[in-house]
């Protein structure tokens, strides 16, 4: 172990999953401080993933819960600042575009090198709240680690220096390979009395869908049409906020709908692998579809992962019910005809965790010399 102190700050389910192997490697090779902002404070959106992925408990668990966006972001900044000032890390690692990633603002003001995984993603749609966070975090970070060449080009186009950008590849293939035996051993299909390839899996949670009444109603109208046509169960992984909106809008629940609390990673991936088709508005489905060959639809009007569409792995449907139903038909017919699509190269990397550790160890002492200047005597 080196005397380098690295702090990882995370706060949501996708961050925990994507960083799981990186966290283990940082624990192995450096003095590693793990900070959880607790941005998602439900067990199903949080602690279950630490347990399943065999991750140690965080060194710090913050309490950033707030009823407003400004309150939550303010809590993240003030509470991470306290921890950073106490621990004085040599580098900080963040991932993605969540409010927890905005902790980079504190690190920047304190002149601590910031390494940002999942940099450069752009959907060019400001209706998506994460798009604002992406630009802030990318332009604040000292070293950006995009997954793909698409993302790297976005950063270059925005004027970021080439010597601050290193393509790491997506960490998902490594995470899935590490945990595939446990995924395959999941008994979730038996628990829900489901038959292989005779059910749909749905996950809708993004703000632009859940908080937009027309979009949410359109999606459920589409699901009703799918249920009527295929007569298969539709398993809907229902986040607490989504469930509240469904209840508030009095959306009709079809007899084939099964609204289920969010699944753990192993159960959810098993459900994806064995489903007739997946409909989701998540970012992860782009990668899962390519890595595991899952027939999938992205129920959004914009996407930050164009490489998945370059290879044809997923269909971007928007929220129009007729388009969604037609896309389900096409995806399934092509699957039955054994039409295959290539997986983007950057989704196939199996050593992302080791690459990230090398970049952090190698550059943590270089960045301050290049970026900051000693005060005048």
TrEMBL record:
Residues 27-360 form the UDP-N-acetylglucosamine 2-epimerase domain. InterPro entries: UDP_GlcNAc_Epimerase_2_dom (IPR003331), WecB-like (IPR029767). This is UDP-N-acetylglucosamine 2-epimerase. SUPFAM superfamilies: UDP-Glycosyltransferase/glycogen phosphorylase. Pfam families: Epimerase_2. PANTHER family: UDP-N-ACETYLGLUCOSAMINE 2-EPIMERASE. It comes from the Archaea. It comes from Methanococcoides methylutens.
């Amino acid at each position: 172990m080196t005397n380098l102190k690295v702090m990882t700050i995370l706060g949501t389910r996708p961050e925990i999953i994507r960083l799981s192997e990186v966290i283990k490697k940082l624990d192995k090779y450096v003095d590693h401080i793990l900070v959880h902002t607790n941005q998602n404070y439900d067990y199903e959106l949080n602690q279950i993933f630490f347990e399943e992925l065999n991750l140690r408990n965080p060194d710090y668990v913050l309490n950033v819960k707030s009823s407003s966006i400004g309150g939550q972001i303010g809590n993240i900044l003030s509470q991470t600042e306290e921890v950073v000032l106490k621990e004085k890390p040599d580098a900080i690692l963040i991932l993605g575009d969540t409010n927890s990633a905005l902790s980079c603002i504190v690190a920047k003001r304190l002149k601590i090198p910031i390494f940002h995984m999942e940099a450069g993603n752009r959907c060019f749609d400001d209706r998506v709240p994460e798009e604002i966070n992406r630009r802030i975090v990318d332009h604040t970070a000292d070293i950006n680690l995009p997954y793909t060449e698409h993302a790297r080009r976005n950063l270059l186009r925005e004027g970021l220096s080439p010597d601050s950008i290193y393509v790491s590849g997506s960490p998902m293939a490594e995470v899935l390979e590490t945990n595939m035996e446990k995924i395959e051993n999941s008994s979730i299909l038996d628990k829900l009395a489901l038959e292989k390839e005779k059910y749909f899996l749905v996950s809708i949670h993004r703000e632009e869908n859940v908080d937009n009444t027309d979009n949410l109603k359109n999606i459920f109208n589409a699901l009703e049409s799918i249920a009527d046509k295929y007569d298969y169960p539709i398993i809907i992984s229902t986040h607490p906020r989504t469930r509240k909106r469904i209840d508030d809008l009095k959306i009709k629940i079809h007899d084939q709908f099964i609204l289920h609390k969010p699944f753990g990673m192993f159960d959810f991936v098993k459900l994806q692998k064995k489903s007739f088709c997946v409909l989701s508005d998540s970012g992860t489905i782009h990668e899962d579809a390519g890595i595991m060959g899952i027939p999938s639809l992205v129920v959004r009007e914009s996407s930050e992962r164009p490489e998945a569409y370059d290879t044809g792995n997923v269909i971007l449907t928007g929220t129009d019910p007729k388009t969604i139903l037609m896309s389900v038909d096409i995806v399934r017919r092509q699957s039955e005809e054994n039409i295959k699509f290539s997986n983007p190269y950057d989704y196939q990397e199996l050593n992302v965790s080791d690459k990230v550790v090398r970049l952090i160890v190698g550059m943590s002492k270089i960045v301050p010399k290049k970026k900051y200047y000693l005060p005048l005597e």
